[in-house]
Design brief:
By secondary structure, this protein is mainly beta. The protein contains four helices and 27 strands.
Length: 365
C-alpha cells in the first residue's frame, strides 16, 4: 500500500498486535468423500516438499460416527497438529511408515498410491491413475473444508491452485478399507461430464488467520511482516510468505495500536485477505475501549467469488451454495486486557453450520 512501510520487531512504531497469520505450503493434495463405508466418510492425502515441513505424505480419514479425524503423518515430517483441527476435531495423530506413499500430479492427470494400517489395524489402500496423455485445463478453487469445522481455532482458507477432478478412465480407482471396496461420492450427470468426485490440486496454500490465542499480544516479525502508516501508529496490512506463496490481510482504514486507543474510543473499518494475488474474502473490523479493556472483532461478510472456472465446476459451485457462502459463517472476537502486561484472549465462532451436510447431500456422500 502506498502509505505503508514494512516494519520488523524492535523498530519504532507498533511492535505487537492482535492479528496473526500462518501460511502452510502443500505441494500436492488429493481427497474424496466415501459414500458407503461404515467407519469412514472421507480420506485426504497431502504431499509436502519444502524446508518447513520436510518431504513426505500426510494421510487422514474422517470418521462417520462423530466426524473426528485420524491423522497419519509420514515419519520425519514436521507438522503442527494444532493446524489440523477440522471436522469434529482430532481423533488420533499417529506417525506412520507407509507401505506405499506416492502422489504425483502431471500435465495429463494424477498418479496416486498409498497403503498403510489405521489405528484399528485395518489396511487402507488407494490406487488412482487417470493419466491419458492429454493436457488438462485446471482451475483455482477455495476449498469448502472449513464449512464442516465444528469448533474453529482459526479462519482456515485452503486455496487450491491447479484444481481438477479425476477423469473416468481405465483402470478405475481402487479404494479399499479393511479389504472392502469403498465407493466415493458422485456428481450428477457423470455420463456427460466423465468426471469422478475425486479432487486433486497442486500447489496448495493453507492459510490460518488469527489462530485462537490466550496470552501476550503477537510480536511483530515472527514469520510475518506488518505494514504500518507513515507515523508507525497503525497497521495497514499483515503479510506472510512461505515457499513462494504470499498472503496479505489489508485493513482500511488502518487498525490503530490497541494499546494506545483512548478510553471510550470506537473504531471500525474494512478488511480483506489476498492469497497469491487473489482476493478470497473479507468484511468488517471493529475495536472499542472501555477502561483497561479493548474488544475487537472481525466479521466475515464477503462470499468467495470465483474467477473463470470450467463449466462443470461453475455449475457445482453455483448449485451447492456452501462453496461460496461458507466464509460468511465465521466471526472472530478478542478481548485485550491493558496494564503492565498486555494480554489477549481470542476465539473464532460459527454463526451457522450444518456440519457440511448440504455438500454431502448434493454429492450423495
Amino acid at each position: 500500500m502506498s502509505n505503508g512501510e514494512v516494519h520488523a520487531a524492535g523498530v519504532s512504531g507498533v511492535d505487537a498486535g492482535p492479528l496473526s497469520l500462518t501460511v502452510r505450503p502443500i505441494a500436492r493434495l488429493l481427497n474424496f468423500e466415501l459414500a458407503d463405508d461404515p467407519v469412514y466418510d472421507g480420506l485426504e492425502l497431502q504431499w509436502f516438499d519444502d524446508h518447513l515441513h520436510g518431504s513426505g505424505m500426510l494421510a487422514f480419514l474422517s470418521r462417520r460416527a462423530n466426524r473426528r479425524v485420524d491423522y497419519y503423518p509420514q515419519r520425519g515430517l514436521r507438522l503442527d497438529p494444532a493446524g489440523y483441527e477440522i471436522g469434529g476435531g482430532t481423533g488420533s495423530w499417529t506417525e506412520t511408515d507407509f507401505d506405499v506413499a506416492r502422489l504425483e500430479i502431471t500435465e495429463d492427470g494424477i498418479d496416486a498410491e498409498v497403503q498403510f494400517a489405521d489405528v484399528d489395524g485395518h489396511l487402507i489402500q488407494v490406487r488412482i491413475d487417470d493419466r491419458d496423455g492429454r493436457r488438462r485445463r485446471r482451475a483455482q478453487l477455495l476449498a469448502p473444508v472449513s464449512a464442516g469445522i465444528d469448533r474453529p481455532t482459526a479462519l482456515l482458507l485452503v486455496w487450491l491452485d491447479g484444481f481438477d477432478l479425476v477423469r473416468v478412465t481405465s483402470p478405475r480407482p481402487v479404494i479399499r478399507i479393511g479389504g472392502r471396496e469403498a465407493a466415493t461420492g458422485r456428481l450428477p450427470g457423470a455420463r456427460l461430464h466423465r468426471r469422478q468426485l475425486i479432487k486433486y490440486a497442486a500447489p496448495v496454500c493453507a492459510v490460518e488467520l488469527n489462530r485462537k490465542h490466550d496470552g501476550p499480544l503477537h510480536a511483530v516479525g515472527r514469520g510475518r511482516d506488518v505494514e504500518l502508516t507513515a507515523d508507525g501508529s497503525c497497521i495497514t496490512a499483515v503479510a506472510s510468505e512461505q515457499d513462494g506463496h504470499r498472503v496479505r490481510v489489508f485493513l482500511d482504514p488502518a487498525l490503530p495500536d490497541v494499546r494506545g486507543l483512548p478510553d471510550g474510543a470506537v473504531e471500525e473499518g474494512r478488511w480483506y485477505v489476498v492469497v497469491d494475488g487473489v482476493r478470497l474474502t473479507g468484511g468488517r473490523w471493529w475495536a472499542t475501549r472501555s477502561g483497561d479493556r479493548v474488544r475487537l472483532g472481525l466479521d466475515v461478510e464477503e462470499r468467495w467469488r470465483p474467477g473463470r472456472l470450467p463449466w462443470l465446476m461453475r455449475l457445482v459451485t453455483t448449485a451447492v451454495p456452501v462453496f461460496r457462502r461458507w466464509p460468511t459463517t465465521y466471526r472472530w472476537r478478542a478481548v485485550v486486557e491493558l496494564g503492565s502486561s498486555v494480554t489477549m484472549t481470542s476465539t473464532w465462532e460459527r454463526t451457522t453450520s450444518d456440519g457440511g451436510q448440504a455438500y454431502r447431500r448434493a454429492t450423495r456422500s
